[in-house]
Amino acid sequence: MKDAQLREKFLGCLKRLVRKKDFQRRLCFFADSVNSFEGWLNWELAWTFAEKHRWPEYSATRESRLEGGGLADLVLAVGREYQPGKPSCHVETKLLWANANRPKMLRYAVDDYRRLQGLSTGLMLVVAVSAGRPSPLKVEAPEKTLTLYEMALSKVGIRSPQAAFDCRISAPLKGEWYLSPRIHIRAYRVDPTGR
Predict the structure, then answer these.
(1) 93 contacts 125 by C-beta, under 8 angstroms
(2) Given phi > 0 = left and psi -120 to 50 = alpha, else beta, which region is 7?
(3) How many CB atoms lie within 10 A of CB 3?
(4) Distance (Å, rounded) from C-alpha 152 to C-alpha 158?
(5) Is there a cis peptide before residue 56, judged by omega within 30 degrees of 0?
(6) pLDDT exceeds 90 at position 168
(7) What phi and psi, each to the nearest 5 degrees, are found at residue 120?
(8) pLDDT, tens digit, for every residue of 4-23?
(9) Which strand ranges, in their side-by-side order, compose the sheet holding 181-190?
(10) Mean pLDDT, residues 93-120 taken together
(11) Banded pLDDT at 112 (limits 50, 70, 90)
(12) What residue spans of the chain are helical by DSSP H?
């Protein structure tokens, strides 16, 4: 198996997960709380992969320490644990709110993408969140945030990033939702620089 094949296995798990209504509702719940939910999402992704591709043939590790220091949000690997030289896929997730912090978070998301390019085959998972009604978040299409992200990537020389997956999720405009979040999940295939 190659790194890219492992990434495609993970993408298949991601696509099945986001189609589930209970996952969509949990996603809107966490978004509606105005708190970062990257940690929760990473656990959901790790669990989904592990259900389909079981240990010890495969492993899914959250916040795994990498060679040379630093952490990856999620590392998928063939074998009981991640080992350099064996097939692996590094996943970074970034939540981008449509608020005053967006420019800073866009910079962080660009840095994550560039860091993935220095590792093995990877996947950059961006979750753009805006609001469907007046709130601390801007009332706009979440696609605007993704456009800003791709523009930021272009400024550092990353043009035409490979979008591997898109999914739009919206909470109903009912009283139970504070923000009535509008969410767009986009995953980008990231290949090591020079390969």
Answers:
(1) yes
(2) alpha
(3) 21
(4) 9
(5) yes
(6) yes
(7) -80, -170
(8) 999 999 999 999 999 999 99
(9) 58-65, 71-78, 88-97, 122-131, 181-190, 162-170
(10) 92
(11) very high
(12) 3-18, 21-32, 38-52, 102-117, 143-155
Q: Using an 8 Å Cβ cutoff, are 42 and 74 in contact? A: yes
Is the whole model's pTM more than 0.85, yes or no? yes
Cα dihedral: 168, 173, 178, 180 (round 10):
20
Instruction: Report yes or no: 161 and 153 within 8 Å, Cβ to Cβ.
Output: yes
As a whole number of angstroms, the distance between CA 19 and CA 88 comes to: 25
pLDDT band at 195 (very low <50, low <70, confident <90, very high): very low
What residues have CB less than 8 Å from 146, skipping those under 6 apart? 126, 128, 184, 186
Taking residues 59-64, report their average pLDDT.
81
**3 state SS for 127-157:** EEEEECCCCCCCECCCHHHHHHHHHHHHHCC
